[in-house]
Amino acid sequence: MEELRTRIARTLRREREAASLSVSELARRAGISKATVSQLESGAGNPSVETLWALGVALGVPFAVLVDQQANAPTLIRADDIAGVPSSAAAYSATLLSASPPGARRDIYLIQAEPGDARRSDPHHPGTIEHVILMAGQARIGPVDEPVLLGPGDYLTYAGDAPHIFEATAPGTSAVLISELR
């Protein structure tokens, strides 16, 4: 998790400065406290998925930009080494597996979730489509008004630029989520 915090700190500061925003202005636009932004930039904070999404939207960059490793060499992520970003609202974490390279518009995540509160997502950038392949467990996924119950091996695609939900209904639920911007 320490390496992830360091990456987030470095990238957040770089993107904020590139946008010519003060810490106060970024905090205001993201709807979070100035102290939270300062902590994250110093590598001391533990951001939630919601906080990083809000910062990404405020900066005009995808979530993936804030957490990607930006490595040129082959990347191997062992299941036992996964360090996801937790949700503050549900037993849910998202691990960026592959960020979209320049000129492309897709990010790949490994989602791990447990039964309890659903992970509700606000609309992402216009034109975002999400693809989900459920690997284990069971979950209600998709548009808030019409989620679909998925089992292992099921695939679902839906508009990510409308409110949507991921609600694990069985322990040990995991999925691959591909976020695509068209």
UniProtKB/TrEMBL annotation:
Per the UniProt entry, the signal peptide is: none
Which domain of life, per UniProt? Bacteria
Q: Which GO terms describe its cellular component?
A: cytosol
Q: Which SMART domains match?
A: HTH_XRE
**Xref: PROSITE patterns:** HTH_CROC1 (PS50943)
Which GO terms label this protein's molecular function in UniProt?
DNA binding; DNA-binding transcription factor activity
Q: Which Gene3D superfamilies match?
A: Jelly Rolls, lambda repressor-like DNA-binding domains
Domain named HTH cro/C1-type: residues: 12-66
One Pfam entry name = HTH_3
The keyword GTP-binding is assigned to this record: no
Keywords, ordered alphabetically: DNA-binding
Keyword DNA damage assigned: no
Q: What is this protein called?
A: XRE family transcriptional regulator
Q: Which organism is it from?
A: Microbacterium maritypicum
